[in-house]
């Protein structure tokens, strides 16, 4: 009997790591299931009460994994209505790392920067995504959105390059939905297609046009001068549609320039 008493405790000690792993696995599965249900509600648009559910999960889940916390924070950002707060939280989350949602975080950050009228910062976020997560589906999407950042600045040739990269990435197994968006955007890249530009001013003196172009370039606008009908016309960007030029037109107006979207040579 005494020998059995000695053996059973040893057997229990030997089995305890397996029990611990099983408990840990069950806890992780519960984490994943809870967050999957929350994400499904967001995807379906049924967001009422979801923000509270995320906060309860963050405050009550015992010893959550870093991966799960990152996912919960990302889902919380998706519900934020204040763009500045969302951008700040996304940047903090992206720099924290440690989450498989990191690629989606950088993608979302790039989209928000573009929507906020800062295509240069958007392009930087998307470049960081590709550097850190080169094999993710979000990397394919990033090429489409990179094209959009160049389009927003009037750099149509570079925008077309980005959309072409998105299409090629999808052919190698990347995100097909992003490739379809890129293909639609790239329809305006065909040689000889209509082109539009934003005209800032027209001068009879070439030096005045050159000075204006330099001022625009110093402010980050890709300006050029075209001589037409005896005038030196200062223009910014090339676009496939007038709608694509509206964002740049608004930014130039806010910077104090009297501008107009006009047709340009293909």
Give your account of this protein's structure.
The protein is an alpha+beta fold and 266 residues long. Helix content is 67%, strand content 11%. It contains eleven helices and four strands, in the order H-H-H-H-H-H-H-H-H-E-H-E-E-H-E. It has a four-stranded antiparallel beta sheet. Strand 2 (223-228) and strand 3 form a beta hairpin. Helix 1 runs parallel beside helix 3, helix 2 (50-60) packs antiparallel against helix 3 (66-78) and helix 5 packs antiparallel against helix 6 (119-132). It is elongated and about 75 Å long. The chain starts with a helix and ends with a strand. Residues 1-16 have low confidence and may be disordered.
The helix-strand sequence is: HHHHHHHHHEHEEHE
What is the helix content?
55-70%
How big a fraction of the residues is strand? 5-15%
Mean pLDDT: 87
Distance between the termini: 96 Å
The rough form would be described as: elongated
Q: Main sheet, how many strands, which sense, barrel?
A: 4 strands, antiparallel
Number of helices: 11
- The Cα radius of gyration reads 27 Å
**Spans where pLDDT lies below 50 across 5 or more residues:** 1-16
Q: Walk across the major sheet and give the strand order.
A: 2-3-1-4
Count of DSSP strands: 4
Which class do the helix and strand fractions yield? Answer: alpha+beta
């Amino acid at each position: 009997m005494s020998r059995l008493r000695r053996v059973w405790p040893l057997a229990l000690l030997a089995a305890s790591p397996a029990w611990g792993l099983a408990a840990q696995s069950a806890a992780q599965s519960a984490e994943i299931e809870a967050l999957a249900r929350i994400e499904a509600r967001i995807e379906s648009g049924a967001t009422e009460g979801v923000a509270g559910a995320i906060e309860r999960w963050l405050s009550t889940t015992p010893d959550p994994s870093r991966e799960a916390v990152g996912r919960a924070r990302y889902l919380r950002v998706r519900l934020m209505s204040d763009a500045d707060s969302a951008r700040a939280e996304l940047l903090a989350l992206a720099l924290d790392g440690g989450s498989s949602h990191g690629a989606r975080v950088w993608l979302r950050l790039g989209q928000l920067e573009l929507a906020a009228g800062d295509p240069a910062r958007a392009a930087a976020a998307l470049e960081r995504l590709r550097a850190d997560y080169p094999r993710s589906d979000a990397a394919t999407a990033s090429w489409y959105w990179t094209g959009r950042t160049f389009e927003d600045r009037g750099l149509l040739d570079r925008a077309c390059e980005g959309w072409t990269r998105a299409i090629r990435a999808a052919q190698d197994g990347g995100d097909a939905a992003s490739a379809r968006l890129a293909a639609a955007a790239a329809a305006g890249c065909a040689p000889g297609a209509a082109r539009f530009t934003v005209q800032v001013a027209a001068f009879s003196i070439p030096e005045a046009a050159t000075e204006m172009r330099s001022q625009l370039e110093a402010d980050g606008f890709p300006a050029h001068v075209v001589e037409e009908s005896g005038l030196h016309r200062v223009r910014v960007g090339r676009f496939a549609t007038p709608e694509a030029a509206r964002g740049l037109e608004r930014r130039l107006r806010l910077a104090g320039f009297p501008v107009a979207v006009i047709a340009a040579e293909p």
